[in-house]
Amino acid sequence: MDPTKYLLGYLLVVLLAVSEAFPMSLSAMVGAALLVAFGVSDGVLSFSEALSFIDLELLALLVGVMIVVEVVDRCGTFRYLALKVVRRVLKRPVLLLVVAGLMSALTSLLLSDEAALLLIVAILLSLGKAGALDPVPFAVSSAIMVNLGGTGTLVGSVPNMAIGIRAGFSFAEFASYLLPCEFALYGVTLALLYLYYRGKLQSSGGEAELEEIEVSRVDVAKGAFLLSLMLSLLIAAGIADFPASAAALASAVVALALAGFDTLEVFQRLDWDTVFFTAAFTVIIGVLERVEALKGLALWLQGAAGGSLALASLLVLLVSGAASLLLPNLIVALSFIPVVEALPFADKRALWSALVLGANLGGVGLPVSSFVIVMTIGALRREGYEIDPWAVTRVGIPVTAAWLGFSAIYLLTRFGLI
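The structure assignment produced for this chain is given below.
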């Protein structure tokens, strides 16, 4: 079976997704339909087999988490807490850089990167409007930290969910492998950002009025409870060897029942483009696995590693990290999952962790490689702040190199590969 036409179909999907000529979901569905048609005509699979490639457990986890986060966001919990924290450090710009960065990273552990960024940048822009400070270094730093923030937990990003489900990691197990690295990277990143922006971190010293939000403290507490409930159920599911997707869906049901929001409005605000993209792209990867189209990359990695798990882990980290400079990290994660599965190592924990780090951490080297960087530049320009997109590269490239370098050391140390 010649896999060439299947690989060409895969490349077509990637090009359509990167070009943004169509929504990512539509690009993936076109590619899935094309590859399934190839497979059926070649007699390598049936339509019902193609449908079985859809990872329902991953989709259930994804939708369940999205529902809970949307309900908590509607309760005003995230914005209320963020404003409370910012008010305490407003007149200390260096501390504000640290706090804004940490809030960005921690918020993106639960919210999507885009939602976390919008939350933090809205607050920073309100500080700029009030004349309290120049929001540019704080906003760019927050965007970089948002990219880092989703790395450490199973529900921190869609790539994490995809990798964690296929690796068989529980919520607690995933966090035990990745969260220490993420927390250490917080310190590394904030130090680099301070060194780069230290001359621009200035406060006016005046009083700034931050826009109040009209939200009930009961709703804020309700949102905090629902968020805590989801995290508790995810941890308990891992201990009881219960699917994380079931815990996420149960949390979603409780959130919808207790919050009292219009269920249809909640559903309308979910990121269905990501859901359908994920479903369609898992079909694409399933077809590629069936015709062994990705076997060549796995064989190359295996040969280059020479039987060394340490070298294989570093190669997965660096190759996936380089790929995510140019491609959406979800495409990188889903594409590399079958490659990691094909590598002949009995214990793949280091390999899966390397893929999580590589897929998540390569996205800030270039402005075009990170949607949140593009969003930040756009938000600043709309408010009249001049910023050169390629100036971001001068901080993004060193940060990415530091992330991948530190992650390599972490992997070798954490999994005893030295």
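Interim note for the steering committee: The two ends are 40 Å apart (CA to CA). The chain is about 75% helix and 0% strand.
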